[in-house]
Structures are given as structure tokens and as C-alpha cells.
Amino acid sequence: MGHKLKITGWVAAGAVAGVLTTVSLQTVARGSLAPLPLEELQQLAAVFGMIKSDYVEPVDESKLISDAISGMVSGLDPHSQYFDKKSFKEFREGTSGRFVGVGIEITQEDGLVKVVSPIEGSPAFRAGLKPNDLITKIDDTAVRGLTLNEAVKRMRGDANTKVRLTIFRKDENRTFPVTITREEIRTQSVRGKVVEPGYAWIRLSQFQERTVDDFVKKVDEIYKAEPNLKGLVLDLRNDPGGLLDAAVAVSAAFLPENSTVVTTDGQLAESKAVYKAAPEFYQRRGGSDPLRSLPAALKSVPLVVLVNEGSASASEIVAGALQDHKRATVMGSQTFGKGSVQTVRPLGPDTGLKITTARYYTPSGTSIQARGIVPNVMIDDTAEGSPFAVLRMREADLDKHLSSGQGPEKKDPELDKLREEARKQLEAEALNPGSTNKTPEYGSGKDFPLQQALAQLKGQPVLVSKTQVERKEEKKEN
């Protein structure tokens, strides 16, 4: 049933992770349409005609129609979307994990773009860019004042074109220009290492076409380096989601064969599906089982899954499946709550429609929509707590968000008060940057949640959050 669907999807850019993430299924359109509301369509045609004839200046007809479709779709929920030619191209790039650019993972710091890591083998890697380098200018444009998305767009472009980056390297206290030739980049969604004898860490930053193959390679590397693995941390923090088949495969790597991973339910018959931990539910057409080479020990190694408010969609499927089957201890913060399925239907050769067609449910039948996965053990970002976690955007904060479909929504009267307090504290710290505690790099020795996960695996005391509480689904404002 569900495994007969062709699976596709999209992972959002890091700057908007969680807000635009999706787990997507490609299906055929309905064979018949409901009767059209002729009176309303006549009004639409009348408005179109008035704009064409009466507006102060000529308006492009195709733009009017495109905007009308976009408005109709965006009024449904935060994840339904009309793709014009440009956005459909970006959608496909996100699904494949390929794009044309310089090849760096970035974040924002003090209004500048900070290099988290150059992608190995990329033009930026070959040009000698290093972690913690700050990009101050892109060609002749100052970075300060640009959003992260704007900076990304300026660094991307056509293959074999050049971009000049001005770099400030703090540890050398010098500024210098670097000219880099853009080329196709394959993003790396899997990282991992043996963090100490007997214990390893694997991080999934997205679920893309190459994620499962890269995950298998990384697991094999870890077991070659540490054959007697005593515990593993699967890190899904700030993983915005992506391909459903990849989420099912990663879950299947740890679960008994044929265990239920996730179910979906919607109006269409194709939306009512059960996905299990079996090759037919995740292997690509014509391919073999990508998990076939995994060591058998992976099915039973003690496992902790790390999540936070940025863990959404496909990452919530994995965390929910492993939690429901009691295969892993989920630690961290309550997840984003993106529990809906989007179907992508082409409207032509270069346009398409992404529309919400189902909710998805964990193996126990629980909807994650607008609620998220509640960890078994709540852990803060740092030993000092997570004072600004309440400010992070979640599904329940999005306008027109879909309800869970499992009972009435509840409004937390304390949430607005907590947010206002956190905003004031953040503003105060912003006036004194030297006192700001920045979150350490994931996987480093100073990564507090990772250290608590390792303590959990070793049976040692864990510093549990004293402030985090489960956040209920909030009442929507109509």
C-alpha cells in the first residue's frame, strides 16, 4: 500500500529550518474533480479583468495568475506552496542535496557570516577557508545587514563563475580576499566519530537522497575503528527533515524487521499508509537494500537520540519510532511539531504544487502535529540552562498551522510571559556581547547535551533540566 508510492521531498535552508521543512510523497492526482463554484470563479475572472483594464499601470497576466494561485495555496497552512519556475528548481536542488556554490556550512555571528565548516573537497576547502572564519564582504557587498538567506544567494550562482569573499580570520587577526570559482556541491548530511573508547556520535543534519548511503558508510567506519561499541548517540538536533524514505531507512537500521515506523492518514486512499522497517518501504526503484552491509550489533547497541526545537518532520519520525519501540532514550528539548505530509504534484515542466495531504503518526498512533516529540529526559543547551529556548519558532507558533486532529488545543497562559522575560534578557545580553554564552559546536568536548547523552549510556548521573516542561499544542488564532 504505502510502499507503492514514489517518495520525494525537500529540506529547507538552514536559516529557516523548521518553518518550511517537509516530508513529502509524490502521488497521482485524483481521477475526478468536485463541481466547480462557478459564481466565485466568475468573480475571480471579473477581478482579473478589472486589474488588467483599470490598474494604474500595465500588469503582467502570468504574474497575476501566479500570485492568485500562490495566495490561494498559502491560505491553507504554512507548508502548502505553489512553485514557480525558480522555486521549483530550488526545491529539486534541496531534495538532491546538490547545488552550485562555494561549498561551506555557515551560520551568523555578530551580523557577519561565520564559516562552520568547509565541505571537504569543495572550492572553499581547496581555497583554504577554515572553521570560524568570518565573511565580511561578498564581492562588493558588505555582509553586515544581510540575512543568512541573502548571503547564501549571493554566494551561489552558475557553475564556473567566480565570487570574491573577504575573510576575517580572528586567530590571525587579519583580513584578506579569496576568489573562488563556483561548482556543483554535494552537501554532507552525515557526520560522526568515536568520541571516546566504546562510544560514538553520529549527526544527521538533513534527510536527503545520499543520507542513507552516507549513514551506512559512517556506521561502518565507526565499527571498524571501535568494534566493541558500548553506546551510540544519534544526533538529530536542528535537523529540519526531508525525505521520508531516508527517515524510514534510518529508523529501520535500529529496529527489528517489519516494525512499524510511521503511519499516515488523509482524504486520499494513497494517504492512508503504514511504513515499516523493511527494504520495500525505503529502497529506491531498481536498487538493493542500502542497509544490507550494516553490522548486526547496530540493532542492539544502547542508543540515545538527541533532539531540540529545531528537530522537525523526518527527524521527528525517527525519534518517535525509536521512542515508541523503546529502542532508544530520547533526550533534549521538545521537538518542532511538524507532523504533516506534503504531496508534490507537477503542474507543468517547471512549476508544481506542494499541498498538505495527510498527518503522520508515531507507531503508538500519536499525532506529532503542533506538539512534537517529548523527550524521555529533558536536557538544556548548556549547564546554565536554555534561557532563550522559549523564543524559538515551533509549528504551533505558525499562522494557520494544522491542528493535531486529536482533541482540542490548549493555550498556555504562561508562555507569553516567559517569552517576554526571555526577550528582555536577550536584549540585555546583546548590549554586552562579551557576556553572551554561545552554544559550542555539536560533537565537541564542550557540547553539553552530548556529554549528558554519554552519561546516560554509561549509567552515570545526568543533569536534567529544572526548567523545561512539556509544551501542549496551543489554541490557534483564527
Write a short abstract of this structure.
The chain is of the alpha+beta class.
List strands and helices in order, with pairings.
Layout (H helix, E strand, L loop, with lengths): L5 E5 L11 E5 L11 H17 L6 H14 L6 E3 L1 H12 L1 E4 L2 E6 L2 E7 L4 H4 L7 E5 L2 E2 L5 H8 L6 E8 L4 E8 L1 E4 L3 E7 L2 E6 L6 H15 L5 E5 L8 H11 L5 E6 L7 E4 L26 E5 L6 H11 L4 E4 L7 E7 L5 E10 L15 E2 L36 H16 L17 H11 L20
Parallel strand pairs: 2-19, 13-14, 14-17, 17-18, 18-21
Antiparallel strand pairs: 1-2, 3-20, 4-11, 5-6, 6-7, 7-8, 7-9, 9-10, 12-13, 15-16, 15-20, 19-20
Helix pairs in contact: 7-8
Name a few traits of the molecule.
Pdz3 Domain, 2-enoyl-CoA Hydratase, Chain A, domain 1, seven-stranded mixed sheet, six-stranded antiparallel sheet, 21 strands, 24% strand, disordered N terminus
Can you put this structure into words, describing what you see?
- The protein has two domains: 99-186, Pdz3 Domain, CATH 2.30.42.10; 190-340 and 362-458, 2-enoyl-CoA Hydratase, Chain A, domain 1.
- Helix content is 25%, strand content 24%.
- The protein contains ten helices and 21 strands.
- The chain has helices spanning 38-54, 61-74, 85-96, 123-126, 148-155, 211-225, 244-254, 314-324, 415-430, 448-458, and strands at residues 6-10, 22-26, 81-83, 98-101, 104-109, 112-118, 134-138, 141-142, 162-169, 174-181, 183-186, 190-196, 199-204, 231-235, 260-265, 273-276, 303-307, 329-332, 340-346, 352-361, 377-378.
- Strands 1, 2, 3, 15, 16, 19 and 20 form a seven-stranded mixed sheet that branches. Strands 5, 6, 7, 8, 9 and 10 form a six-stranded antiparallel sheet that branches.
- Residues 1-32 and 474-478 have low confidence and may be disordered.
